[in-house]
């Protein structure tokens, strides 16, 4: 179909106006990520192998451990909301504004 999907773990953030997201069955979620990782590793695509590594890191993350890949938001990418606020990420617990496009040049 020519489509690609992204994966992420559930999280709480100011942007999504949510603070009660909880994974109730971590082993089941981890097993589904393991199945995805194994499927990606069966391909001949290095891109899919890197995605497998990323998804393997999400298993660590849902168990409360360190991610395999550090977050590099604000160094490589950033988020701009509709009001011009520039933030490192829209997934932080609190709104962390680095500046505003309407007020600064």
From TrEMBL:
Domain named 4Fe4S-binding SPASM: residues: 71-105
A Pfam family the protein falls into: SPASM
Gene3D superfamilies in the cross-refs: Aldolase class I (3.20.20.70)
InterPro entries per the UniProt record, alphabetical: 4Fe4S-binding_SPASM_dom (IPR023885), Aldolase_TIM (IPR013785)
Name of the protein this chain belongs to: Radical SAM domain-containing protein
Organism expressing this protein natively: human gut metagenome
């Amino acid at each position: 179909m020519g489509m690609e999907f992204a994966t992420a773990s559930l999280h709480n953030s100011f942007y999504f106006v949510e603070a009660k997201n909880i994974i109730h069955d971590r082993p089941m979620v981890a097993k589904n990520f393991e199945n995805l990782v194994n499927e990606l590793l069966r391909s001949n695509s290095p891109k899919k192998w890197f995605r497998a590594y990323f998804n393997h890191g999400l298993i660590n993350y849902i168990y409360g451990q360190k991610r395999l890949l550090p977050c590099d938001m604000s160094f490589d990418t950033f988020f701009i909301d509709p009001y011009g606020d520039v933030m490192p990420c829209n997934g932080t617990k609190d709104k962390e504004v680095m500046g505003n496009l309407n007020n600064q040049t």
